[in-house]
């Protein structure tokens, strides 16, 4: 039956809403997201919600216990009326004319018959629609033929199941991706394992039965498995979690015999070997694990769940092993369990690098500072993760790309979508640039809906031709510095007050903070009732540069042409060339005089107040930076 | 005139009665052909008979594709092994007689039953439209409704409306996915008509049960192309038996910040329990696993229980471990007369299994790890 039928036949009603025959509006959102109706309080309700919508009797094809001799319609009416307490159903009875109920019943029956005729091979070719009775008769014939071909044996005492057992077994194993196994608790001997193990671990049954389970378990997990198999009191007791209180409850059960006898549950994960090569079974010589080279061994994570079971040894045929369980001589205890593979994500094995496309992942805090760097970044950028962590990403972006990246940064903080950046250049440890292209999205906590951080998936587009050594870099840059010095001077004149390299350097790092602050301000301003309150910093546009000027005078005006990038933890001779180039290039570009170039691209899109506020804050930021990070004594001056 | 009309009416009534009788007989015949116990057969109503017939035919078609050729192939392999190892192998199909087949059948049945029992779940075969073509008979143990009551119905009738979208997404199968036997893993809420004590009640007093469904897609090509999903459905337990040193429990506020953590975490991940309080789990995991954790979190918020996939948690000072979490939302507990002191807001309880050892212990991936490295 399709969902349409479900709708027609009296579909579900959520939470006992008024009994109209309406299909519940479903969540139309494309992605799985918290529905907008969901508030923390309603979530609480939902988790507690045990209230079931009232279901019309009719939609379960009537009660199965009544025979079909009584006309269906009457039956339902009687049922409904006898539902004295149920107000909704009563109302429905009155609202809905009898004929409607009947019609629905007939429609349902007709749909079923149609489906049946579609399934039966003999009905299919018929061009005209067959009548009900004929379809039914053909169905009878078809079933008879099916039963005839299948190997079946009828035994009175044999409980028939809907599917033949072999088939059911296949189905279960296919669905579950698991295998059944029984291991003895004393030494981990594999007493039984189902055939499906072949598909999962690629060992045959014969290879495994009789072997010790520990031969197939990752060495580090052996302790864990031993603990699970043992009944010793040395190991931690059962801990149950009470669902109502969420607190741990120590099980006060006596540990020894009770744990082994029926039903003590076990659930654990362990890594098991799997066989990559198909080897033909040669019983005498083949040893499961010991002859194999350990380093080529592959493991997969198996979730084992099962029970402890114990049998009196007298009932079992012990083939010559003879040694009884140490603890209890007359019982043989085993773990009967199912092992399943979950492969949710393929773990990255050490050293495996995905070849194409070359990418790595990073996390930024809202202000652009790296808080997480994937180890793959090292091969691409040259920096170890710890060298990048805590520094702002803007320090590494090429100056050409700053405007557009800042813009994307702004966008990503305000939107739920994934934002693609254009290609941009990222400075490597050696001073050269790699071209990257990234996809950013702001990760929002599903519950609080606040941005926690930004996740960036970075793909390498191209490497700079030839990574130059430091000396080369230096010479390169010193040559370029000569040419750009004039420009630099020009721009020095043009950009009032802001300065020189130190300021610009720090400025690069502060773009991110600025953007983050903008967002905070934006939120604050939005959340607070927007009165026409003028910010204390309201200044008309033309005054800004002046303000700028005044404040900038407070900044120490080092004439330094190069200096160490603050934020970088290393104090050794970091490529001065790099620092130099960064500052230089920044200067070269900013030849126009306006707020945008000086403080931040795209700033003019904000209002005056915001702009002014942003300017002030950025400068304050730089001020602070200067205060702590930079030690002028240690600055290296170009010679 | 009147008598004429009466007579005509009587004739038509008789005809109708005859038709109904014939119809009922055919229905009865059909129900007798179904592989069900007599007692069940006698009590089926007409729509149910058709539903079950449909299921039977569909399963037959499906299984021919699954077991037909493969069964033969696997027999052949087995025989080969038999000949090589010299072991006696009952599965080999040479000269099997009915007696052997029967024993095999019984064995298969026992194995399957045991499998399902240990798994603590039931099997479901879903068509791409959501029709529950087949359910294993232990479904009554978990849902309170029997196999015959459910088979042939559509799953959307029994699941929470808010989960329908997700279920539909999971049912959608592209051709490629089907051929590769694409895997599925999701959580959904289904009506369960069981009382606390585990007895069946009726559907009217049903409650929502959270099921963890895992499985794969399956197709059979001949006679007609049919694809479906094979899933095992396990109700997520609310109480866990912890028996391992490699697990720890933690409590979180609804935004997944730690509010409590048991001290095992110190041994496994290096953090002290105090330093974790207030920290978000999203800070402590590998970025590539953000999606996995988000999905888990959403499942918790929406469905109140979840199983995360496998993800990486960062270890203090460097490296990470692979873990898997089973979580549930614990309803808020207000102080009551019997427990005046106990107050607990809505929170999330997690049981986390640590799957691996510490990988790459010297690698610092997050800012947090660098800080911890240098602070003592």
Spatial separation of the terminal alpha carbons of chain A: 84 Å
Largest sheet of chain A: 6 strands, antiparallel
Q: How many β-strand runs of chain B?
A: 11
Count, helices of chain B: 12
Main beta-sheet annotation of chain B? 5 strands, antiparallel
Question: Given the helix and strand composition of chain A, which structural class is it?
Answer: alpha+beta
Which stretches of chain B are poorly predicted, pLDDT < 50 over at least 5 residues? 69-95
Portion of residues within helices of chain A: 25-40%
Helical content of chain B (DSSP H or I, runs of 4+): 40-55%
Strand order of the largest sheet of chain B: 2-1-5-4-3
Q: How does the helix and strand content of chain B classify structurally?
A: alpha+beta
Strand content of chain A: 5-15%
- Can you tell me the overall shape of chain A? flat
Q: Give average pLDDT of chain B, whole number.
A: 80
Subcellular location (chain B): Nucleus
Domain PAS (chain B): 111-178, 253-305
InterPro entries (chain B): bHLH_dom (IPR011598), HLH_DNA-bd_sf (IPR036638), PAS (IPR000014), PAS-like_dom_sf (IPR035965), PAS_fold (IPR013767)
GO molecular function, one term (chain B): RNA polymerase II transcription regulatory region sequence-specific DNA binding
């Amino acid at each position: 039956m399709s969902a349409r039928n479900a709708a027609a036949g009296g579909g579900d009603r959520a939470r006992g809403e008024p009994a109209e025959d309406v299909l519940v509006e479903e969540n139309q959102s494309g992605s799985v997201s918290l529905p907008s109706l969901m508030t923390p309080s309603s979530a609480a309700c939902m988790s507690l919600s045990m209230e079931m919508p009232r279901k019309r009797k009719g939609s379960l094809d009537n009660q199965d216990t009544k025979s079909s001799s009584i006309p269906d319609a009457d039956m339902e009416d009687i049922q409904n009326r006898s539902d004295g307490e149920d107000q909704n159903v009563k109302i429905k009875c009155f609202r809905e004319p009898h004929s409607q109920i009947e019609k629905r019943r007939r429609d349902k029956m007709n749909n079923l018959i149609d489906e049946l005729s579609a399934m039966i091979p003999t009905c299919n070719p018929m061009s005209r629609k067959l009548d009900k009775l004929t379809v039914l008769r053909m169905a009878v014939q078809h079933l008879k033929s099916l039963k005839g071909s299948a190997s079946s044996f009828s035994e009175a005492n044999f409980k028939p199941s809907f599917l033949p057992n072999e088939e059911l077994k296949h189905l279960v194993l296919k669905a579950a991706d698991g295998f059944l196994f029984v291991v003895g608790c004393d030494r981990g001997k594999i007493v039984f394992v189902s055939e499906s193990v072949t598909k999962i671990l690629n060992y045959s049954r014969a290879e495994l039965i009789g072997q010790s389970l520990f031969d197939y378990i990752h060495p580090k997990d052996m302790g864990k498995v031993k603990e699970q198999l043992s009944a010793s009191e040395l190991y931690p007791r059962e801990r149950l979690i009470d669902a109502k209180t969420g607190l741990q409850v120590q099980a006060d059960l006596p540990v020894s015999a009770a744990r082994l006898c029926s039903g003590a549950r076990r659930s654990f994960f362990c890594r098991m070997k799997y066989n990559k090569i198909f080897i033909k079974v040669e019983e005498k010589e083949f040893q499961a694990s010991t002859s194999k080279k350990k380093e080529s061994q592959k493991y997969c994570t198996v979730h084992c769940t099962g029970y402890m079971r114990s049998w009196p040894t007298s009932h079992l045929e012990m083939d010559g092993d003879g040694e009884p369980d140490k603890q209890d001589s007359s019982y043989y205890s085993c773990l009967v369990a199912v092992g399943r593979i979950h492969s949710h994500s393929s773990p990255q094995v050490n050293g495996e690098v995905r070849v194409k496309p070359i990418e790595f992942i990073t996390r930024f805090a809202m202000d652009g500072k790296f808080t997480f760097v994937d180890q793959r970044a090292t091969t691409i950028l040259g920096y170890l993760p710890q060298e990048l962590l805590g520094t702002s990403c803007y320090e590494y972006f090429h100056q050409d790309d700053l405007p557009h990246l800042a813009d994307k940064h702004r966008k990503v903080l305000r939107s739920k979508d994934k934002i693609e950046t254009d290609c941009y250049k990222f400075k490597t440890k050696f001073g050269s640039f790699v071209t990257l292209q990234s996809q950013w999205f702001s990760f929002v906590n599903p519950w609080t809906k606040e941005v926690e951080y930004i996740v960036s998936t970075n793909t390498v587009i191209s490497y700079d031709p030839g990574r130059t050594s430091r000396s080369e870099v230096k010479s390169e840059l010193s040559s370029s510095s000569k040419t750009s010095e004039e420009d630099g001077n020009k721009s020095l004149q043009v950009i009032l007050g802001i300065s020189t390299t130190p300021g610009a350097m720090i400025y690069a790092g502060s773009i991110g903070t600025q953007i983050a602050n903008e967002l905070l301000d934006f939120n604050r301003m939005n959340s607070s009732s927007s009165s026409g309150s003028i910010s204390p910093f309201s200044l008309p546009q033309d005054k800004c540069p002046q303000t700028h000027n005044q404040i900038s005078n407070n900044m120490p005006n080092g004439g330094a042409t190069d200096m160490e990038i603050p934020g970088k933890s290393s104090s050794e001779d970091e490529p001065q060339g790099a620092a130099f180039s960064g500052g230089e290039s920044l200067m070269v570009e900013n030849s126009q005089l306006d707020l945008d170039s000086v403080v931040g691209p795209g700033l003019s899109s904000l209002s005056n107040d915001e702009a002014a506020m942003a300017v002030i804050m950025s400068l304050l930021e730089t001020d602070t930076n200067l205060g702590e990070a930079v030690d002028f004594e240690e600055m290296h001056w170009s010679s | 005139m009147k008598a004429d009309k009466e007579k005509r009416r009587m004739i038509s009534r008789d005809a109708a009665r005859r038709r109904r009788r014939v119809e009922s007989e055919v229905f009865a015949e059909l129900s007798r052909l179904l592989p069900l116990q007599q007692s069940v057969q006698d009590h089926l109503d007409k729509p149910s008979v058709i539903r079950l017939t449909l299921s039977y035919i569909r399963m037959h078609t499906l299984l021919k594709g699954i077991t037909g050729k493969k069964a033969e192939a696997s027999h052949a392999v087995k025989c080969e092994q038999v000949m090589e190892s010299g072991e006696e192998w009952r599965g080999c199909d040479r000269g099997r007689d009915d007696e052997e087949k029967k024993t095999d059948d019984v064995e298969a049945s026992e194995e399957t039953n045991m499998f399902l029992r240990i798994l603590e779940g039931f099997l479901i075969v879903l068509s791409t439209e959501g029709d529950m073509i087949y359910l294993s008979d232990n479904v009554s143990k978990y849902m309170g409704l029997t196999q015959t009551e459910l088979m042939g119905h559509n799953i959307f009738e029994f699941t929470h409306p808010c989960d329908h979208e997700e279920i539909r997404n999971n049912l959608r199968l592209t051709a490629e996915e089907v051929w590769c036997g694409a895997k599925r893993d999701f959580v959904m809420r289904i009506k369960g008509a069981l009382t606390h004590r585990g007895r069946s009640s009726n559907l009217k007093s049903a409650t929502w049960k959270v099921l963890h469904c895992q499985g794969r897609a399956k197709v059979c090509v001949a006679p007609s192309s049919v694809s479906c999903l094979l899933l095992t459905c396990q109700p997520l337990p609310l109480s866990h038996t912890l028996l391992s040193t490699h697990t720890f429990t933690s409590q979180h506020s609804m935004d997944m910040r730690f509010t409590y953590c048991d001290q095992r975490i110190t041994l496994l991940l290096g953090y002290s329990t105090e330093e974790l309080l207030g920290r978000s789990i999203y800070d402590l995991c590998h970025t590539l696993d953000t999606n996995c954790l988000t999905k888990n979190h959403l499942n918790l918020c929406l469905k109140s229980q979840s199983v995360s996939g496998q993800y990486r948690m960062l270890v203090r000072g460097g490296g990470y471990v692979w873990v898997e979490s089973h979580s549930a939302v614990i309803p808020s507990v207000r102080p009551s007369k019997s427990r005046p002191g106990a107050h607990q807001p809505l929170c999330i309880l997690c049981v986390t299994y640590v799957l691996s050892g510490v990988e790459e212990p010297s690698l610092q991936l997050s800012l947090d790890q660098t800080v911890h490295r240098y602070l003592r």
